[in-house]
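Session log. Operator J.P. requested a structure for one protein chain; no other inputs attached. Running the standard single-chain path with token output.
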Amino acid sequence: MIRQGDTSIVNGGTPANQSPTANAGSDKTITLPTNTVTVTGSGIDPDGTITGYQWTKLTGPSTYTIATPMQAQTAINNLVQGVYTFELRVTDNQGATGKDTVQVTVNAAGNQVPTANAGTNQSITLPTNIVTLTGTGTDPDGTISGYQWTKLTGPASYTIASPTQAQTAINNLVQGVYTFELRVTDNQGATGKDTIEVTVNTAANTNSNSNGVKVGTGEYQVGFIDSAKQLWGLGNLSNIGINGIGTVGVPKRMLVTPFDLKFNSVVGALHGLGAIDTAGYVWVVGDNDQFQHGQGNSINPILLPQRITVDSAGNPFTNVRDLVGWFVKDGSNGYNGFYAVKQDGTLWTWGRTVFGMRAVGVYGYDSPRPVQIIMPGGRLIKQIIAGQFAIALCTDGTVWTWGQGASANNLGMTSPTDDVKWYPRQLTSLSNIKQIAGGSNWNYALSNSNVLYGWGSYGDNLGNSNGLPIPTPSLLNNITNNLPHPINTIVTNSAVTHVILTDGSLWGWGDNGRGTLVTGKSCFTIDGGNPFNRGNLQVVLPEHIAPGIIFDTVFGATTYTYHTYAEIPVIIYIAGEGERSAVLANPIKTNKFSNYCNLW
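Structure written below.
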């Protein structure tokens, strides 16, 4: 019995455990590229202690890493754009739990602008009037979606061939300093820009009094353009565009329509000529039995000049800046065609494009209309030379060859197989080249530093006193060591080589059997006799031609021509073998050259 004053415990036993309270901290916001946060949680237990923590992700992107999920404070790494919810669960000493959440917002990065690189500054010397610009763009947080080339400063004359491409040719440059800008755009519309400077120097030894005559030589005909830019022919009456009517040996204006049409250049072919008018169209005269006229047919003969109007795809064929005719011989058979280079540096061909001249990796086939040759890597052409095969100098200073060639040694490679001959192959030992010459049995490459290289089956025409072939490009020290100044211009024909030096003097070497060297003599420059079975007519080392006369231009050809043309601004002279050859020169101030040849 309970009495007054006694005490008792009602509902006796241990008091009920109270749950702990979790606090995950305040919400957080970050912006990429920051991709980590630190969350600091806590727990309170009113009737005990906190014995454990556990962080987990409830919602949000799948990419994340909780560094120490069982600690009150932890880093959360590798976050990506989006909204995350993380939960903190705390446990007390009696196993009760409490929980709380924190929200982490990860914003997208602010777009970073791209970086443009327009390349290194360039310098060229006229008559070269084209450069290739190769730009790049990088974007640290996206991709490059566009390129745009523009001119900022410099002369008004220029043409950007592909202004929206990373690489473009720039044509029609004149003397002066240009600044071009490359602007790149990224996938979010931000832009970056860079500039490049292009310096165009005046042509070395350009004579301001030059009469501007241009000459193109073929086997039995010569074409030339006078100072009024009118086109003339001389030689076989069927091959010079005068309808077969005239007097052999008397120059006559070609019957182009309209008759007063102006021309920029003329080149020789085997039995015909090609010319480029001032609008950039190609005209062809002479034989058409192998589609040389580029008209889509082989109607022959055609006695009047024809303009090539469209290419093989039906597009207008114009904007041509350079032209060369070639003749490939296969035993008793011969094949003819042309190469043309457009202002944008692309290469085209037409005619009987066999023996690898089509440059598609096979023997070849007829090309009745102009068709483009795609160079490896999309390279653009600075200069093209062709005769028995092709040599191309690209705007990046590399040299490429293709075609059957009169000898394997002429392609600049050791024993190339047919599949190698029929597609452009780079002569990898050559770089920074500014000029090429040849296309026959001896060939040249002249570097920007005026180093002369040569290769071919006729080593004696390359200054090689033993006459052995030089199958791959080699330094021609025997030539350059016997010249008093660096070479400015180099050309060949089917017998000899001529060069104009930086002082304007004219020099030559090679087979003088037809009097083509124009030294006024036949001579042989190897002691002990001639091992080449060509009489005493082989000039192996350079001979000075017409000392005292300054020359402006020298012209050459490779389609069975035994003549070279040189220009000085007053008179034109002719010398050499009568039927197939001549040497034309135009003296500056004296008639001294008449000692070596006859007045035209």
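Operator note: The first helix runs from residue 418 to 421.
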